[in-house]
Amino acid sequence: MTNELVYRGAVELAALLRSREVSAVEVLEAHLEQIDRLNPLVNAVVTMDEDGARAAAAEADRRLAAGVPTGPLHGLPISFKDTAQTAGMRTTFGHPRHADFVPGTNDLHVQRILDAGAIRVGKTNVPEYAAGSHTFNRLFGATRNPYDPSKSAGGSSGGAAAALASGFQPIADGSDMGGSLRNPASFCNVVGLRPTPGMVPNTDGGNVFFPLGVAGPMGRTAEDAALLFSAMRGATPDDPFSFFPAEETHAGEPSPQDFAGLRIAYAPTLGGRIPVAREVLDVLDPQAKVLAELGAHVELDCPDLDGSEEVFRVLRAASFHAAWGDDLDADPGLFNHFLAGNIRDGAKLSGRDVFRAEEGMTRLIRKAAEFFTRYDLVIAPASQLAPFDADLEYPTQIEGQQLENYLDWMRAPYLFTPLGLPALSVPAGFTPSGLPVGLQMIGARGSDVRLLRLASAFEQLSSCSAVHPQGAAVL
């Protein structure tokens, strides 16, 4: 029988912990029991330190009893994405050659989360080097969808999203270059925010000038994701492009009435640029109509995405070749075939190609800024299809349209990436077979907090966040 603590929201749990109605040890043990019961089926958590977590939880209780000030995440258990470096706990990046790699320091966002009082439990599964939106690798295998274990949990933060949906933890970190927070959130009925670049400092890699990859928060609700986001964001001298965002204040709690008067662009196929499964649009189209009925001005429109495909693929391939080109030359069998192909694509690029891609990104950012003088919000699919079979490498067609490679089905989130905007996926509904569908919401640069508030208001309309897995995954 499931302990009711594991599906309490992070905000609610944090309040219960601060008031000492429950202890950090009690909360941890409930989540460890849930992991023990269900993780063999979903394979979301791939490394654990139960003894270390128990010691940290006991210390958290002791400090609270002694009157020591606590952080906003006090006592909340979390397993970190397995591409985030965690001091004293292995970080594999989903690749066998790092199976025994134990970092000596934490990545900045990891340290901030721990400093805010969270209890480190383990690591969540990722694709090889987080490349792709389907979580499987040669080291740990595939992560499966808690709503249907025969289906994909998405990726690359697939382990994180599945862990949230399964009740293994109330908050989760992730990262997003081409949809790695948004896609798994859509597949697993949770919320994943890709922040405005700079909101969460880019100190985890070797290039602060690379704006495509960002770290961000996940939660079962937007409110929970916002709680984690508050701990992750903020400037640091190590990233000159990071910044302290202006605090946004709003009167009262989020409400569906927040949508009244908003100018919303609905882009179901991103202006005809992508195929989208009919069962996905059958969920999203009615939601757009509901927003219009609330008084929003909803129009079919889309930001200028011309050239975004090339910008994304060129900069992504260039970064892959810079990171792993020498390794691939030394050992052609080191990487899976599609990651190796992307690295080789990067080898073909010139400095001129990269510079022109950066010029293209500049144009897209400027056009997006102009677009948001006319609109307050963009809504679109977070994924072009519902969760697919976990045994597939990637889908090969959508609505009869053939897909050429493993990136083609991920365009719905990644075409927005070069625009430098905050974007999230929020639960919107289910297909007739009970698979989750997420709505992607995109806001103006720097509007992350407002976007989370609107997502919270939307949750009151869709009521999907409260629907937890009911199939084989919870029996």
UniProtKB/TrEMBL annotation:
Q: Which organism is it from?
A: Arthrobacter cupressi
Q: Which residues form a coiled coil?
A: none
Q: What is this protein called?
A: Amidase
User: Can you tell which superkingdom this protein's organism belongs to?
Assistant: Bacteria
Q: Membrane-spanning residues where?
A: none
Record-linked InterPro entries: Amidase, Amidase_CS, Amidase_dom, AS_sf
Q: Give this protein's Gene Ontology molecular function annotations.
A: catalytic activity
A matching Pfam family: Amidase
